[in-house]
Amino acid sequence: MKFVFDLDGTLCFQGKPLSDVIINALDELTHCGHGVIFASARPIRDLLPVLPEHMHAYPLVGGNGAFVANNKHIISTVHFEEDVKNEILAIIKNYGLKYLIDSEWDYAYTGSDNHPIRRNVDPQLRAKQVDLATMDIIVKIVLLDIPDHKVILDRLAKLPIVIHEHGNEGILDLSPQGIDKWSGLQQLGLQDRTYVAFGNDANDISMFQHAHTSVMIGNHPELGSYAAEQIPADETSIARRLLAFCRLEETAAASYDRAKSTFR
User: Fold this and answer.
1) Is pLDDT above 80 for 83?
2) Which CATH superfamily is 2-77+180-262 part of?
3) Which Gene3D superfamilies match (predicted)?
4) Which residue among 44, 95, 122, 144 is buried most deeply as judged by most CB within 10 Å?
C-alpha cells in the first residue's frame, strides 16, 4: 500500500523537522513493504529541510500539487497563465499586499522577517531571493497579513485559480486552476482508492476524497467530513498508528502462510 503524508501539522510541528519517533515509524512502514509519499503546501525547496536525507529521493508533491518530484528530480511544475498572473499581481499592487511568491525554484518575499512563515522559506539557502519583476514564471503565491480580507478574497475568487484559506495563519494560498494534491499524486501514477492519506487541513481534502483510507490529525471541521479516522496531533499517537499498519500487514502475512500450509 502507498501512504501519503502531509507535513506541517501532520507529521511535523511548528516548522521543525520530523522527529526521531516519526522517522523511525516511517522507516518501519517502508520496511514492511509500504511506499511513502509526502504531499505538502511547501514547494520542494522548502519541503526537503524537514525530511532526513534518506527520504529526499521519495516521491514528493509540493505547492499543493504545483510541484512533483521523484528520485531527487522535479518532474513536473504547473504555473499560472500569463493573464491570470497579471491579474493577481495587479491586486497585490493595488492593495499593497505582502507576499511569498515562488517560481520554479527561486522566490520573492516582502513579508516581515518575523513572520512565522519566513523561518520555513529556504532555510538551507538552496535558492535565491529575487525581485518579483524578474520572475517570468510563477508557480505558487502566498499572501500574508491581508487587510480588507473579504474584499480581496472576493476579487481573487473571480479568477480561475485554486484558493486555500488558512484562517489560523491569516494567509491565502493561491495555486493555478486544477492544481491540488490529488492532481500531483496522479502525476506520480497513483490511482483512486489505492493509498492511505494522512492530513490536517483543508488543502488535504482532494487527497482524502480519493484515498482508500483517510486519517485526520487533530481537528479540522471541513476536512473531518472526508476523514475515516481521527487521531490526536501528537507524535506518539501518530507513530503508534503507523506501526499498527505494519502489525496489520504482519498479521495478514502470517494468516496467509497458515492458510498455505493447510493445503500442502
Assistant:
1) yes
2) HAD superfamily/HAD-like (3.40.50.1000)
3) 3.30.1240.10, HAD superfamily/HAD-like
4) 44
